[in-house]
Structures are given as structure tokens and as C-alpha cells.
């Protein structure tokens, strides 16, 4: 679960603009906002740093929430 959408909207940015800033595709931002993609630690850091919040302020880890982890 994450708050990428909420932070992006507060900054009045498009998915493409955020993708350009953090170095990924628009599709990556789209699926991340739908909670269908877990970002790498590096990408999570880039996003959190851009929004000037901690990683756990934007991304929430739920134990057992993803069978692949």
C-alpha cells in the first residue's frame, strides 16, 4: 500500500512528470498507484526524497501482504 497518488496530486503533477523525475516509465507510476507494483528500495527512496517525506511515510509494508516477499 502506498500514498504515491495522494502526494502526486498534491504537487499537481501528472504520472509522466513524476516518472521523469524519478527515472521510470509512466506505466510504472500507474501500476504503483494501483498497488500492483512494489518498488525497489532505490525507487522508493527516490520517490520519498522527491516528496520530502520518509519512505515509511509514503509506503506501508504489511507482513504477509505479498506472497513474493
Automatic annotation (TrEMBL):
<dbReference type="GO" id="GO:0003677">
    <property type="term" value="F:DNA binding"/>
</dbReference>
<dbReference type="Pfam" id="PF01381">
    <property type="entry name" value="HTH_3"/>
</dbReference>
<feature type="domain" description="HTH cro/C1-type">
    <location>
        <begin position="4"/>
        <end position="58"/>
    </location>
</feature>
<protein>
    <submittedName>
        <fullName>Transcriptional regulator</fullName>
    </submittedName>
</protein>
<keyword id="KW-0238">DNA-binding</keyword>
<dbReference type="InterPro" id="IPR001387">
    <property type="entry name" value="Cro/C1-type_HTH"/>
</dbReference>
<dbReference type="InterPro" id="IPR010982">
    <property type="entry name" value="Lambda_DNA-bd_dom_sf"/>
</dbReference>
